Amino acid sequence: MSIERSQQLDPRADPELDRQVVRKLDRQGVRLAVAFVGLSVIWGLAFNLTGLPFFPVVVAGGVVTGLTGFWVRRANDEPEPSFALTWPVAGLAVVVALVHFAVGHLLFGLASRVLPAFTETALEVYQRTGTLPVWGQLLLGGVLTAGLEEVFWRGAFTTMVADRVRPHLPDGLGRKRQGFALVVVSTAGYALFHVATLKLALIAAAALGGLVWGSLLLVTRSVGATIIAHVLWTCLMILFPPT
């Protein structure tokens, strides 16, 4: 199965083989649900317990997220989505990150005029990250944590959710519309996860980021591309915060 098309079970196939496939999907689904809840708790604690050292907890959460992504990913005989990259795909990821950064700043400015909570919650996050030198923020927050997040969210969560939602979409929707619908569904899960942080700015950023990185995965089928886009965007947000 891939993000573009799920493998349909052939009714003429070996029933035992079909049962094995179903059991495998069930195990993956349980792992995904456990990971979603467990990681929500970790990130919720990281952003809301001010007594904890912020960056160490966030980095630990990023490492756990990445390892969890490998835990719930599909088997080796199902290679998509891969981490493979080509120069054109890497270039596209860079362009996407730059556009995402510019559009995000514009939307943040507009939203903060209507909802001051955007500015307030963003300031809370930046004030806590300011305890670490910029190079440390870039290395630990931008490169390590953001990169490992993609292993789980685009390397496992997005595609596995897509495989389960796709059979329920109308056949007449068309491949492109189906792809967009799947990105929207996975983005909803990504944004819902960030509700645990209780930070409105982070929830909104997750909603936009989920659409961007999910669409990039849909086009490139490369988690490597989404890692580049996420890491570059995060580093730019550290260097040039919207506030």
TrEMBL record:
One of its GO terms (biological process) is CAAX-box protein maturation. Signal peptide: none annotated. This is CAAX prenyl protease 2/Lysostaphin resistance protein A-like domain-containing protein. The keyword Transmembrane applies. It holds the Pfam family Rce1-like. One of its GO terms (molecular function) is endopeptidase activity. The chain crosses the membrane at residues 29-47, 53-72, 84-108, 134-157, 178-195, 223-240. The keyword Magnesium does not apply. InterPro entries: Rce1/LyrA-like_dom (IPR003675). Keywords: Membrane, Transmembrane, Transmembrane helix. Residues 134-235 form the CAAX prenyl protease 2/Lysostaphin resistance protein A-like domain.
